[in-house]
Amino acid sequence: MMSSTRTSSPAPWHRRPELLAAGAATVTVVLWASAFVSIRSAGEAYSPGALALGRLLAGALTLGAICLVRREGLPPRSAWRGIAISGLLWFGFYMVALNWGEQQVDAGTAALVVNVGPILIALLGARLLGDALPPRLLAGMAVSFAGAVTVGLSMSGEGGSSLLGVVLCLLAAVAYAGGVVAQKPALAHASALQVTTFGCLVGAVLCLPFTGQLVAEAADAPVSATLNMVYLGVFPTALAFTTWAYALARTTAGRMGATTYAVPALVVLMSWLALGEVPGLLTLAGGALCLAGVAVSRSRRRPAAPSEHIEPATAPRREDAGRL
């Protein structure tokens, strides 16, 4: 009796990896949401390519310093393919395309197109990585996507949309999804810090052609814009991408992609607190949908409780039945 009682309640440390991964994902989502506020300031003084390069350089320097302190070596050869692809697609191409695309379209269009990314992650993960697509994940992503579009439409101004902007946002979403799916296998061979550091370096090398723009614009940019660019590199890039990789190594790509649907809701809250932009009822409703969808997508069906069968005292026990 005592042994069955102990095994029925799992020890607290059994959930420790799951809780750490959830905490890492939360850090990522919060910092990525804060990036939208900083991009508004930095984007007024820096062009898309220069902003991406400055952000990646700040991130690479930060990550490189941490690697030196921790004495992290080079990733194994088996991880380099995924690191290179994620660095080219996600750290490099995605950041430039997104910065450029969001200058061409209004917020509603950007929300509609860019938030296709998590859906593509789930589909590519199922196709290339063999990830499962449980109904709760699909239902939660559908709810969150509707919420993200609602937030974007409610916060849109009178800006128009261009075909170029739509194409750039769509390419950014595809690059984001491809980068995440390529990063997942690399995390089986290298640490989250290694994958993030060298992926960031690959992205920075890809953006080196924008060096001239970065130097010229930095000379005329206000200090606040430059500080926001550095913030983007240190926190939403170096720290948040590392915590993302840590969490991604411990769950499926689809579930991690669905988690990012909490970002629009947090952007609404941060814009309210930091910029004094009071959200309307439609915006709040969209944010609530985003959070509800994330909760549904990350929920799991509870295992059925084992039924306790109490045999009558007069009935012979199973181990004794063979002896009778």
Automatic annotation (TrEMBL):
Top-rank taxon: Bacteria
Any single Pfam family the record assigns to this protein: EamA
Protein name per Swiss-Prot or TrEMBL: DMT family transporter
Biased composition (Basic and acidic residues): 308-324
Residue numbers spanned by region Disordered: 303-324
Membrane-spanning ranges: 45-68, 80-101, 107-130, 137-157, 163-183, 195-216, 228-249, 256-275, 281-297
Protein keywords: Membrane, Transmembrane, Transmembrane helix
Transmembrane helix listed as a keyword: yes
Chain ranges of the EamA domain: 24-151, 164-296
Family affiliation: Belongs to the EamA transporter family.
Cross-referenced PANTHER family: EAMA DOMAIN-CONTAINING PROTEIN, TRANSPORTER, DRUG/METABOLITE EXPORTER FAMILY
